[in-house]
Specification:
Residues 434-487, 560-589 are annotated as: Disordered. The chain has 4 domains: 4-205, 3-Layer(aba) Sandwich (Rossmann fold); 215-369, P-loop containing nucleotide triphosphate hydrolases (Rossmann fold), CATH 3.40.50; 372-428, no CATH class; 448-589, RRM (RNA recognition motif) domain (Alpha-Beta Plaits, 2-Layer Sandwich), CATH 3.30.70.330. A hairpin with a 4-residue loop joins strand 16 and strand 17. The protein has 20 helices and 20 strands. A 7-stranded parallel β-sheet has the order 3-4-2-5-6-1-7, with helices on both faces. 37% of the residues lie in helices and 15% in strands.
Amino acid sequence: MSFSQLMLPEPLVRAVTELGYETASPIQAAAIPKLLAGEDVLGQAQTGTGKTAAFALPLLARLDPAQNDPQILVLAPTRELAIQVAEAFQAYARYMPAFHVLPLYGGQSYTNQLKSLKRGSQVIVGTPGRILDHLDRGTLKLDKLRAIVLDEADEMLRMGFIDDVQTIMDATPAGRQVAMFSATMPAPIRAIAQKHLTNAEEIKIASKTSTVERIEQRFVLLDANQKLDALTRVLEGEEYDASIVFVRTKSATEEIAEKLGARGYAVACLNGDMNQAHREQTIRRMKASQLDIIVATDVAARGLDVERISLVVNYDIPYDSEAYVHRIGRTGRAGREGKAILFVSPRERRLLRTIEYATKQPIEQMNLPTGQVIEQKRIESFRAQLAQTIETQNLSFFTDLINDWRDKLETSDAELAAALLYLAQKDQPLNVANKFPELRQPHARAERNDRPGDRRDRPERSFGDRPSGDRPERGPRQRRELQGDYNTYRIEVGKEHGVRAGDIVGAIANEANIDSQFIGNIKLFDHFSTVELPANIPNEIFQHLKKVYVRKQKLNITVDTGAAPAGERRSGPGPRPGAAPRAPRKPRE
């Protein structure tokens, strides 16, 4: 089903068409008509199935452009998802005049957020902690709210935000439209749905995404301004017959193709502005080896089948996993091996994890080819051309010239050959090792959250490392068996400060870049708490954690000695008061 068939307004259809969307995904086809009709929706679908467009497009269609107060509120579990959703709203509304969307999340300056709120935005996308902060301060008004969306509700439950979500939902006006999307439906999520959704029909979509096993998938972590340099290195250093480079916009296809052409590549672009005859001519040229690289958008590359393509470069990371699968499916054709490389900026790492989870395959990080590698590749390529020329061409005329020039220039064969080689390689110099400095790796750790429970930048992990099940949002944390050496640490925040175990997990996971599954047992006391962490935490991270705040209290983390303040009892075993710090604990059998 096309988006125009879904009765969306023309500006929205025009926008999604330019973004490369051809047909609606199953969750979009099912949810958009209901949300357009003003109904509540409970959607169960895996990440990467197009949920953002499923709620953003119909809610934008119902927006009142004359009203500059918040009309739509989207709650997202992490900073990255909030940014991603806000960017999607902005992209879909590109032809809607006077539209404003505002992302709100921890780590941003309150001053800047307050200024943006005063200017007015029709759509607010935020993490529960920061949204609740603004509600408590009275800086965010929801009295004119028309719709609220809970995106990845089960993830918010897993991260301990469910109480904040309940509080925010209770603060929204009666009669507002509600859309809730979740990959799973644990009991607490269904309880929220039963309380806040009215006559909602559940939409359940099974993900069918899979990737071609024979395709080698890798990613490069870099800053956005390093992409062109990185692309040049990849095209120089990787072995491939032909390549397709995917970007998001039509203008980018032309810009990058022009820059690659200026560097000597046989390249052309494919985008939605090209007529069918031009498109077919470009594809014929690639099949005939007249082109080696095509720079394309998703929509322009649909149905592209060229056996020569052995390398796909995702210059711009796709917004959903379905698009990624279509992209990399352009290689590995006819039983051949293929390679796919993905450029990822630090703020896009969540999209990378989404793709890994949906495709059920890990994507390995790679290093860009060094100057030495590129130099050696150029030398080998030039040598191969020489060998082919010697074998296939009649060189008698040139041999006579060489003999004549050697005598007239009074030089040796080696010097003459070196001079000719120098002239032949000027357009693509062979001696380039020192002209390719190493690209600076971006610093991927996020800044500190203003609200510690508002976890944003989760650490990297491959598919299969996700903890199974949902962590309870209330009550004591279940003891788990830990592998490796662990220490028990003391932090100076406790029950009297209103701290919860989820607050501590969120702060430490975010600041120390430790996956929550490697954070051990937490015990809450009146004035302090203890937490089990790996014993090999680097000193700079340990010192940083000392300065982190949870519930407005500095952690001031130290190795736990077992001592308790006067009048406060410890529960459970521990070293006697004043004992030396415990040695790292051995793995449990």
